[in-house]
Amino acid sequence: MIDLRxxxxxxxxxxxxxxxxxxxFQMQTRQNMKIEILxxxxxxxxxQHDEQTHSQIETEKAITEINTKLDHIVKxxxxxxxxxxxx
Length: 87
Known about the structure:
Blueprint: H1 4-86
């Protein structure tokens, strides 16, 4: 006949292995959820960075245009002043 100790030992072993497998998959699910949250946060930060970079580039272009116009104004003012001072 089947020894009761062997049956109990096998049952305990199967339950232990089954519990370990379940615990592993639960842990894996939690890790995957954390990874998804982190990936979403990284994507959001990358989008914000891209927007800020775009805004910075636009600002630098505007500053360059303003400086160019100011240079033209200064040159024009200098040209206007020169003939008057030579009189």
